[in-house]
């Protein structure tokens, strides 16, 4: 087997060979621990029939492990300086394709139909650039890609918010947005020491498994998300106060909002953070005729 990329010695060698300097603005913290990488990949449940999509391959540390453990890897990298490096480090692997593109601007559906059309099992696995973690995850989910799930490294604080349950201080509109589409779990907490350079924040790995159907069935998805965001606008306020101050003409429609809360079986004095996804679903359906 080829020498692993993800060791401190090999990583330094590669960086020196190419005179590569990290760009903080691109969230470049490379993994230098093969053991951690293997554990991340374990959580993705890859088989020799799986295709992996990676975001931000860096110098190929994770890409290499994915190439060994899946049938094909397609990786999106924004930093042009990394392309010749990846061509070199990943030269032993014939099943990897690097696409030089900002994932936020990429047409991932199109890529899948061109590169991965024959795959029934597609997983996204990534050590995400921390400055755009949430937009990347939301893009992948909102576009309703034909993927089984996402295993991603991100800031621990964001992982905690994504996987939070009702009644906790981490629970908010991000938890709901992601749990609407997926079953979300934090599967690993990762020390700073496994990165080069070391980030300032703690990290964690989350696994998002796509649901066949959204967690709740609602009349209008975008209105459901509008109601959840409104409900958390000021965490210390009651649900009634947040809805009247945040929804359009909410103050004039206070009576209707009170009735909708009653219809959904939700006390108006509760706070947004105590409502389950199901309750938000009932609430947004009860409010929908008032605001559509
Ligand atoms: N996968 C490598 C590893 O684990 O060592 C590198 C991970 S590093 C945290 C994030 C990577 O994402 C960097 O290579 C960075 O250049 C790349 N990146 C940052 N923003 C991106 C974007 N919008 N689209 C694609 N890649 C991006």
From TrEMBL:
Checking SUPFAM superfamilies in the record gives: S-adenosyl-L-methionine-dependent methyltransferases
| UniProt-listed InterPro entries | KsgA/Erm (IPR001737), rRNA_Ade_diMease-like_C (IPR023165), rRNA_Ade_Mease_Trfase_CS (IPR020596), rRNA_Ade_methylase_Trfase_N (IPR020598), rRNA_adenine_dimethylase (IPR011530), SAM-dependent_MTases_sf (IPR029063)
Ribosomal RNA adenine methylase transferase N-terminal domain residues:
36-212
Catalytic reaction equation(s)? adenosine(1518)/adenosine(1519) in 16S rRNA + 4 S-adenosyl-L-methionine = N(6)-dimethyladenosine(1518)/N(6)-dimethyladenosine(1519) in 16S rRNA + 4 S-adenosyl-L-homocysteine + 4 H(+)
Main localisation: cytoplasm
Q: Which residues bind S-adenosyl-L-methionine?
A: 29, 31, 56, 77, 102, 127
Q: Where in the cell is it found?
A: Cytoplasm
Family annotation (Pfam families): RrnaAD (PF00398)
SMART domains found in the cross-reference section:
rADc
List keywords of the entry alphabetically.
Answer: Cytoplasm, Methyltransferase, RNA-binding, rRNA processing, S-adenosyl-L-methionine, Transferase
Among HAMAP family, the record links this protein to: 16SrRNA_methyltr_A
Q: What does this protein do?
A: Specifically dimethylates two adjacent adenosines (A1518 and A1519) in the loop of a conserved hairpin near the 3'-end of 16S rRNA in the 30S particle. May play a critical role in biogenesis of 30S subunits.
**Entry-linked NCBIfam families:** ksgA
This chain belongs to which protein, by name?
A: Ribosomal RNA small subunit methyltransferase A
């Amino acid at each position: 087997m080829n020498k692993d990329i993800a060791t401190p010695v090999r990583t330094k060698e590669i960086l020196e060979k190419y005179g590569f300097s990290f760009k903080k603005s691109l969230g470049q913290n490379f993994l230098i621990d093969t053991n951690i990488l293997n554990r991340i990949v374990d959580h993705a449940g890859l088989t020799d029939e799986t295709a992996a999509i990676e975001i931000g391959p860096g110098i190929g540390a994770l890409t290499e492990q994915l190439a060994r453990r899946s049938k094909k890897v397609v990786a999106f990298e924004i930093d042009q300086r990394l392309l010749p490096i990846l061509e070199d480090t990943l030269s032993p692997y014939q099943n990897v394709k690097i696409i030089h593109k900002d994932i936020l601007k990429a047409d991932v559906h199109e890529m899948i139909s061109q590169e991965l059309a024959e795959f029934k099992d597609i997983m996204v696995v990534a050590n995400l650039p921390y400055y755009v973690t949430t937009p990347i995850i939301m893009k992948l989910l909102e576009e309703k890609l034909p993927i089984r799930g996402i295993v991603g490294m991100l800031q621990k604080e964001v992982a905690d918010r994504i996987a939070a349950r009702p009644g906790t201080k981490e629970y908010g509109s991000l938890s709901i947005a992601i749990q609407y589409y997926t079953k979300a779990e934090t599967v690993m907490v990762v020390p700073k020491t496994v990165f080069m350079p070391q980030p300032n924040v703690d990290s964690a790995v989350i696994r998002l498994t796509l649901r066949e159907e959204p967690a709740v069935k609602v009349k209008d998805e975008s209105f459901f998300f509008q109601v959840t965001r409104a409900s958390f606008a000021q965490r210390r306020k009651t649900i009634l106060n947040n809805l009247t101050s945040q929804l359009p003409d909410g103050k004039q429609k206070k009576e209707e909002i009170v009735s909708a809360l009653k219809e959904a079986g939700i006390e108006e004095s509760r706070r947004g953070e105590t409502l389950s996804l199901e309750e938000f679903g009932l609430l947004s359906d009860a409010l929908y005729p008032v605001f559509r």
